[in-house]
Amino acid sequence: MGPGTKTITLDGRFQMHRAGYIESPTLAYETWGELSEKRDNAILIFSGLSPSAHASSSAEDPSDGWWEDMIGPGLPLDSNRFYIICVNSLGSCFGSTGPASINPSTGELYRLDFPVLTLEDVAEGAFRVVEALGIEQLHTVIGNSMGGMSGLAYCVNHPGAVRNFISISSATRAEPFAIAVRSLQREMIRSDPKWDLGNYDVDDPPILGQRLARKLGMMTYRSPEEWVERFGRQRTTATEENVADPFKIAFSVEMYLENHANKFIGAFDANCYLYLSRASDLFDLAEHGGSLKSGFKRLKLERSLVIGVVTDILFPLHQQQQLAEGLREVCPDTVLVELDCIRGHDSFLVDMDAFRPVICEFFEGDCG
Amino acid sequence: MGPGTKTITLDGRFQMHRAGYIESPTLAYETWGELSEKRDNAILIFSGLSPSAHASSSAEDPSDGWWEDMIGPGLPLDSNRFYIICVNSLGSCFGSTGPASINPSTGELYRLDFPVLTLEDVAEGAFRVVEALGIEQLHTVIGNSMGGMSGLAYCVNHPGAVRNFISISSATRAEPFAIAVRSLQREMIRSDPKWDLGNYDVDDPPILGQRLARKLGMMTYRSPEEWVERFGRQRTTATEENVADPFKIAFSVEMYLENHANKFIGAFDANCYLYLSRASDLFDLAEHGGSLKSGFKRLKLERSLVIGVVTDILFPLHQQQQLAEGLREVCPDTVLVELDCIRGHDSFLVDMDAFRPVICEFFEGDCG
Question: CB distance A180–B232 less than 8 Å?
C-alpha cells in the first residue's frame, strides 16, 4: 500500500454473494481530482486481477501507477474535471481485506478460510467505498479485463447508481479457454509443495508455482503476432547458472518470460491470486435473472462503450461484440470500438496511444 | 512397442546433427502393404511428438493405431497400392533409441547424457530405415505437426530421395508462441522435484509436471472455438477427493483436461519428451543454407501438398501459407488446402472426414 492509499473499514458483517461473511473488511482506495459540489463527476475504476489501487501518481504518491498515462490533468480520465476513484479489489492483497489478511475472529490469516469470492463481492466492496465517500450516482464505471466484469456486477446490482459504463477487454463471462488457462495457473500454484493447502510460510511462498502461472499468464496477455515481430527466433546470449540442465533458456522469448516471472515474484499473495482467479471464472452476467438477456435488462445506463482488441486471446473480439450487442438492447447509446493493437489482452496497459483517443472522446475531453 | 513393430539396429556410430554421436541406435518401425517390384510405392510417415510407430492396425497388431482411419485398404494411404512405413522418432521411447534407452558405453540409461537431438536426427534415423528396406526413392513423405518439420529435414538433406511431400499442420520452423508453450511445458516437468535433473526413478517419474505439461498441450492442440461449442460454461458433477481444497475442479472444461492428463500419465518418458520438445523448437529450415529461400532451394520435389487448419494456434494458418509459398517457388505443383475444422491443431487426428478427401485426392485414390 503506497502513501497515496486511503482505507475505509466497514462496520459489522460483510455478507458475501455466495455464502458466508467477513467481519468488518477494509477497502483500500486512491482518488484523483475533486468531487464536484453536485457530486456528479465521480468515475470508478475496476482493475484487472493483479493491480493495486495505485492507478496513477498523485501528490501523496508520485510513483507511476499502473494506468499512469490515462489518469491525470488533461488526460482521458481528466482529474481537472473528474473525481476518479480506484479501489483495490476485495480479496486482493494491497490494503483491502483478502485471504492474506488477519481474520479478526481467529487472529490468524484467513488463508483458505476466506469465503468463496465473487466479482459481485468485489463490486460490493467498491460500492461501499463510493457510498462512504457520499456519492449516490457515479458518472462512469470503467473496468479492464476482470475489472470489466466487476463493473458489470456493480451496474447490474445497483441500477441507477451508474450513468455510464466502459468495458475494456472484458466480457459478460469467461469462455472455457480462459477458464482452462486460469485453472491451469491455479493448479501450478497448488501443485507447488510449498503451497501446502494454502498454509505456506509467508516468507517462503510457492514461488515455483507462481512463476509458472505468471509465464502462462504472459502468454495469454500478449499475442503471438507481437512476439513474431518482437522476438522471431532470436537467441538469448544470457546464461543460466545451472549448466547441468541442457534445457535451459535458449530463445529470447524464453528469457522475456523469465524476466516477467522474476519481476512478479513476491508481488502477489498466492492465496489471493487463487481466489481472484476463481472469481473471474465464476462471474456470469446470466446468473443475474437466469439469462444474459435478463442480466442486461437489469442495467440502467445512459451510455456505454465497449473496447476490444483484435489480438486478444483471453477475451476475444467476438465476446466484445456480444457484450456490445447486449448493452445496446438496453442502452441504445452503446459504442463498440475494435482496436487493431498487436499486443493482445494487455494492450490497454501498454498501447496507450490507441486507447487514449477512444476514452477521451467518450468523455468529450480535449486530450490534444 | 506392439507386436507389429519391427526394429533395425544400425551398425556403428550414428553422428548427431549438432554434435556428438550415439552408438548403434535402434529404430522401431511398422509397415503396411507391400513394396512394389520397382520399389517406387513407399510412403514414409513422420508422426508428431508423442505417437509411436503404430499408426494403424495390421495383421500382427490389430489394435487401433493413432491414424487408424487414414491408413489401410481403400483408405487415403491405401495399403493395397502403397508400402507405408512409420518410424518411431529417434529420441522417442517406443522402441527407438532415446534418452530412456541404455547407453551401451556405460550400461546405464542415457538420460541427459543423450546428445542434443534435432529433427534432422529424427529424419536421418528414418532415412537409415528406408535405406535398410532397400528403397532408394520414396513415393511420398508425409508429416504431421513436428513430423512435418522432420519431413522437411528429410527432403532437404536427401534431395531426390523423395518425389512428393505432404505437410500437415506444420511449418518451416516454430514461431515464438509455440516455443514459449513448449518451453513452459518443459519447465513444468523440470520444476517437478521428482525430475531430479533427469535422474528420476523410472517407476516414480515426475508425473505432476508431466500432467501440467499435458494440460497446457491440450489447450494448444485444440481450439477455443471448439470448447465454446463443447463445454460452454457447463459445470462438472464429478467430485474430487480433496475437499479441503476449495479450488478443485468445477467446470467441465477442467474435468476434460484432467481426464486427458490422467490418460497420458506413464505413457511417455519425461526425458524423451524434453528432448523431442526442444528439437521442435530448434528446427529451422533457414539453417539449411542460411535463409528460408536457400533451404527451399535444396528441395527436389515433383509435387507437394500443404494442409492447415484455420483454428490451429500452434502452427497457425499464416505459417501454412508461408510454407506453401516457399515450396511453390521450387515445386510449382504445390497445393495449399486450408481446412475450416474447429478442433485446432489436433484436427488431423480427430477430424478425419475433413482430411481424408484431401489426401485421397493427392494420391488420386478412390476413397468412396
Answer: no
CB contact under 8 A, A191 and B179: no
Q: Vertex B63, ends B60 and B68: CA angle to 5°?
A: 105
Q: Which residue of A has its CA nearest to B117?
A: A246
| Residues A316, A321: Cα–Cα separation, whole Å | 9
Predicted local confidence at residue A368, as pLDDT: 60
Give whole-number Cα distances, B164 to B143, B158, B167, B299, in Å. Answer: 12, 13, 10, 10
Task: Report the residue count for chain A.
Answer: 368
Do B60 and B31 meet the contact criterion of CB atoms below 8 Å apart?
A: no
pLDDT computed for residue B267 by the predictor: 84
List the 94-133 stretch of B: residues with Cβ below 8 A of A.
112, 116
The answer to whether residues A158 and A21 belong to one domain is yes
Instruction: Report which of residues A141 and A364 the model is more confident about.
Output: A141
Least Cα distance to B42 among B79, B95, B8, B89 occurs for B79
Q: What is the pLDDT of residue A239?
A: 61
pLDDT score, position A238: 66
Residues B305 and B326 placed together within one structural domain of the fold: yes
- Indicate if the pLDDT at residue A93 is higher than 90: yes
For B253, the closest of A116, A179, A246 (CB atoms) is A179
Q: Which residue has the higher pLDDT, A244 or A268?
A: A268
Please give the Cα distance from A28 to A153 (Å, whole number). Answer: 19
A36 contacts: CB under 8 Å, gap ≥ 6: A83
C-alpha to C-alpha distance for A114 and A236, rounded to whole angstroms:
43
Q: How large is the ipTM? A: 0.95
Bridge partners of A334, per DSSP, are A304
Q: Count A/B contacts: CB-CB distance under 8 Å.
A: 134
Residue B170 sits at the vertex; the CA angle it makes with B75 and B338, to the nearest 5 degrees, is 70
Q: With an 8 Å Cβ cutoff, are B245 and A188 in contact?
A: no
% of residues, chain A, pLDDT over 90: 94
Model pLDDT for residues A16-40, shown as the tens digit of each residue: 999 999 999 999 999 999 999 999 9
Report d(CA B54, CA B38) in Å as an integer. 26
| Same domain as B197, residue B160 | no
Q: Which residues of chain A lie closer than 8 angstroms to B247, CB-CB?
A: 186, 190, 274, 278
Beta-carbon separation of B224 and A176 below 8 A = yes
Task: Look at residue A184 and tell me whether its pLDDT is greater than 80.
Answer: yes
A63 counts as catalytic: no
pLDDT value at position B365? 81
Residues lower than pLDDT 70 in chain B: 238-243, 368
- The mean pLDDT of A66-89, rounded to a whole number, is 97
What's the domain count of chain B? 2
pLDDT in tens, A201-234: 999 999 999 999 999 999 999 999 999 999 999 9
Residues B106 and B10 in one domain: yes
DSSP for residue A173? B
| b/e map B174-209, b = 16+ CB within 10 Å | bbbbbbbbbbbbbbbbbbbebbeebebeeeebbbbb
Domain CATH for A289:
3.40.50.1820
Q: Say if residue A281's pLDDT is above 90.
A: yes
Rounded CA separation B155/B330 (Å):
13
pLDDT at A126: 98
Cell matching residue A133: 465517500
Amino acid B357: pLDDT? 96
Is B357 inside any structural domain? yes
The span from the first CA to the last CA of chain A, in angstroms, equals 33
The C-alpha cell of A161 is what? Answer: 447508481
Q: What's the CATH number where B232 sits?
A: 1.10.1740.110
Measured between beta carbons, which residues in chain B are less than 8 angstroms from residue A284? Answer: 233
